[in-house]
Structure formats: structure tokens, C-alpha cells
Amino acid sequence: MITAAGVSVRLGGALLVDDVSLELRAGEVLVLVGPNGAGKSTLLAALAGDLPLAGGQVLLDGRGVGEWGAVNAARRRAVLTQHNPVSFPFDVLSVVEMGRAPWRGMAEEDDDDSVIAAALRDTGVEHLSARAYPTLSGGEQARVALARVLAQRTPVLLLDEPTAALDVRHQELVLSLAHRHARGGGGVLVVLHDLGLAAAHADRVAVLDGGKVVAVGPPAEVCTAELLSAVYRHPVEVFPHPRTGLPLVLPVRSREEDGCQS
Amino acid sequence: MNRRVVVLFAVLAAGLVVVSLMSAGAGQYGLPVSDVVRALVGKPLSDPYASGALWAVRFPRVVMSLLVGAVLGVCGALMQGTFGNPLAEPGIVGVSSGAAVGACLSIVFGWTFLGAFTAPGTAFVAGLLTTLAVYALSRSGGTTSMILTGVAVNAVAGAAVALLMFVGDQAAREQIVFWQLGSVAGARWSYVWVVAPLVVVTVVVSLAVARRLDLLALGDRQARHLGVDVERLRLVVVCAVAVGVSAAVSYAGIISFVGLVVPHLVRMVVGPGHRVLVPASLLGGAVLLAAADLVARTVVSYADLPIGMVTALIGGPFFFWLLRRTRTRGGGWL
User: Do B225 and A101 touch (CB under 8 A)?
Assistant: First the structure.
């Protein structure tokens, strides 16, 4: 659905994304992980068509992402950015309605009401629909922003840290929504910081370090103690969940060792 | 449609009619509203000169104040919407200060190549050029860059006006001071017919882009993800504002606070959606300026106070109160 071929991005002289080739396939949740400054958000922005490329190309449904034009691109891919401030006190319903903008004047416009209602319900913000967006908590704002993105009803979803501000229940909710979207034939690219969430919910994981993809594949193959310890420059342990067998990823916590040394 | 919206439009429309009639009747030669209505529908008045005075002096003045107020209100809403910033007003992109330079040039050097239209004409062109210069200089840097470029250009324009006042003679200085204070006195139908089409252009464009301005509240990048060509939208809006405000300022001088306050008031009542905000700011600006002109002409007998002074004097403290109130109630900007 989205193909990056040899993509490089340079901002202010620094090479933030270095010759990355990656494909988001229909029906999968592809999770992008990596340490701070690895270039995850920059790569996501490049895939969304937000940034000029220093090299390579990004194809959206087989065509250069910039060649679609803003409206046509907006009917194919929706993007959730990390921060989503709204400059005026629009109520939640109006914010989610904005997600329908690309479909104005199309047959899909007839579905606006049902799509908006579904997006509000799926993200658990129905009860907030009359509230002013700026008065919501960070986690509530994040879910409303996600509802807006879902209301866009695009095959491709690019989500930059959708779980960062959320409690455990809502983290799981968001990733199960991503799954449902993928099962329905869509493609979802998610940037995550929580390696446990990544290992549990990804169909494939791509590990980014220093602007390069150092590994990509199913979590069981990619999430190894050796690779993650090297990438994060911190010892990481991986062991199977006692009940499900899924990989659990935990950083080695140094409290006892510190205690011994002091 | 929302009931508050209907009520707001009804109140504004009624206010427009009442204020206009009162304003046309008030002045050194006072007329009852019934006479104003009679004159409007073409019936003879007891005083044959009254009808002539109404049509030649009062009506064009009232219409001019409505036009100028309407365009300032609309452009305030446009600027705040495009810049996603509640403090934006038309002046930040240099329209008013640029127009001031143009007006001062023609006053100081006594240009008359367009007859009575020379000062307004040069003010209009200078306002337009200044705005487009600010846009061209800051295009690539986003909204913050445009606002900062506007600050720099406004400073230079202020210096140019100061220099022109220094160069000019006593009479020119006086004229410049009064132009800068703002006034719709001396409006004639010939001026109205020039300003009106420009105002109409601005209003039509602003109504056409209103829906898309909502999306800019999410941020430039997010609006682009939703299919908005942000660069082009911003260019269209800046051009519309430049045309409308240059036209208004060229005749009426600098009238502050209308563009800033009116959209805030409307948002307090009906929320921030631009499909309502833009037309309501149009009516609100018109009512406010017509009322300010009425005050300017009647509060001191035998004196025509500068209207820019009236709007700033009432608008400043009012705006401060508004900010305090919003802050204490929470919920961020209006």
C-alpha cells in the first residue's frame, strides 16, 4: 500500500533517515520501534508525504505520494501525528467531523453520520462529544484525534505514538482497533515506544536505529535480547509469556546492582 | 440549525437596522427615525432640505461605516482562522501600516493625479503591495515567520510615516494625524461605489473558504493530511484580506480593534466554526462600527470624534476583560 524505496531525509544538514526501504502491506499491522532520535517520526512523515526527500521515493498505491494531490492522498491514507493541539475550542463532534473533509461532494459523504458515530464509539469518546476539545485531558484528546483519523476511512493508517498518553485499557483498545482495520484489508503503520506492546500486537516489527532499518520481520524473529540490547544500548531481556508464549520484552532494571555497588 | 445561531443572526440583523436608522437621524441636525424611514422609501419630508441632507451626507456615511466595519470583522475572522491564532488581526500582515505610508506620501507631496481619489488610491495600492511583500518574504517559513515578518515590515512602515511627517509641512502633518485616527466623515456615494465592490470580493472569497479554515485549526500538517492545499488557501486568504482591508483603510484610516474583538465575541456565543463565524463577524463588525460612528458624532456636541479612537477606547478595556474572563473560566482561548 505504501512502499519506501531507498528513502533518505535530511533536515538542517543532519541525515535523519538513511536509505530506508520498507513496505506496508495490505492486511498487516507494521510497528516501527527504535530509540529516541532513531528517525521513526521522520520516516512516518516521509511516508505521509510531508517532507521533501533527499533520496529515494515513496509510493502510495503505486504512485508517488506527492503526485496524488492533497485531496486524493487524503482519501487513501490518514495520519495521526504525535501532538494534536486545536487552536480554537471546537467541540469533540466538530473535530471528528473534520475527518470527513476529504469525502465532501463524493458518494461517501452520505455515510458521514454513521462513520462519525462509529469512530466516536470505537475510541470510547461518545460521552465527550459536546465537550470543547481544549478542555479534555491529554489521553482524551489523543483518543479524539484518533477518532478523527478513523473517520477519514482510508485504507492506510499512519499512527505516530497513538498510545503515548493512554492508560493500559486504552492502549490495548487502540491496538485492537489497528488490528481490526488490518483484518479488514487495510494497512496500519504504528510508531510505538513500548516494546511489549510492539511484540504483542505487531504482525511485523521494523527496528530503526540511526535512521536505518536494522531489522524487520515477525516479532518472534526481530524481538531478540541481543538485537534490542544493541539497538537501545541497554540490556534487554526477552522471554516467553508463561501462558500465551508471546515474547515479553523487559529492560534489565539496575536497582539491585546499584545497591550492591554503593 | 442551532438555535443560538438563529438568535445571533436575528439579533445582529435587527441591530444593524436599528443602529443604521438611528445613526442616519442623529447629528447636529437631528431627525426622528420616522423621518429617516420616510426619506428612505422616497416620501417627502416636512423640511425639504432634510431629505437632501440625508441622501447626500448621512446615508453614504452610514453605508460606509457598515462596509468598513463588515470588512474589518470578516478579515479579523479570516486572519485568526488562517493563522490559528486568536490574537491575529488584519494589521499583522502590514495592510494598515502600508496603506498609511501610501496615504502619507500623497498628502505630503500633494499628489493629485487621481483627483479626490489620490490619497485613497495610493493607500490602497500601498496596503496591497505591503501585504504581498510580507507574504512573499515569509512564504516558506509558516505562520510564525509571517507574523514576525509582519512585525518587521510594520516597524519599517511606521518609520516611513514618521519620516514623512517630519518632511511634511504643518497642514500635511495635521492631515496625517487625522487620517491615522480613522474616520468615516466625509463619505460620499462616489467613495461608497468604489469601496463596495472590493468589500464584496473579500466577503465572497471568505464565505467560499470558511469551511476549510476550520481544518487549519488542527495545524498545517494535519490540514494537509485532510486534503487542504494549505499554501494556496493561505495565499487566497491573504489576498482577500489585503484587498478588503486596503479598501476600507484607504477611506476610513486606521480603525483598530474591530477586526480583533468581533470574531472573539461571535465565538463566545456560537463557537468557533467558520461557516457561522465569518458571516456573523460581517454583521457584527458592521453593527459595531456603525454604533461607534454614532457615538463619535453624538457624544460631544458639535464635535466629530475620530472613530478609531472610539473603537480603541471601548475595545481595549473590553478586550482585557474578555481575556481575564476566559482565563478564569478555563478552557483556553475563546
Answer: no
Tell me the backbone φ, ψ of residue A243, rounded to 5 degrees. Answer: -100, -50
Name the residue facing A90 among B85, B211, B217 (closest C-beta). B217
Closest CA to A99 of A148, A132, A143: A148
DSSP codes of every residue in B115-157:
GGGHHHHHHHHHHHHHHHHHHHHHGGGHHHHHHHHHHHHHHHH
- ipTM attached to this prediction: 0.91
Give the residue from A51, A87, A140 with the most B CB atoms within 10 Å of its CB, the best one to mutate: A87
Cβ atoms A56, A5 nearer than 8 A: yes
**Domain ranges within chain B, ordered by starting residue:** 2-328
Read off the pTM: 0.88
Render each residue's pLDDT in chain A as its tens digit; 262 residues.
999 999 999 988 899 999 999 999 999 999 999 999 899 999 999 999 999 999 999 999 999 988 999 999 999 999 999 999 998 899 999 999 999 999 998 988 899 999 999 999 999 999 999 999 989 999 999 999 999 999 999 999 999 999 988 999 999 999 999 999 999 999 999 999 888 889 889 999 999 999 999 999 998 888 888 899 999 999 998 888 888 878 888 888 876 555 444 4
What is the homologous superfamily of the domain B2-328 according to CATH?
Answer: ABC transporter involved in vitamin B12 uptake, BtuC (1.10.3470.10)
- Give the closest of B217, B227, B229 to A88, CB-based: B217
Across the interface, whether the CB atoms of A87 and B217 are under 8 A apart is answered yes
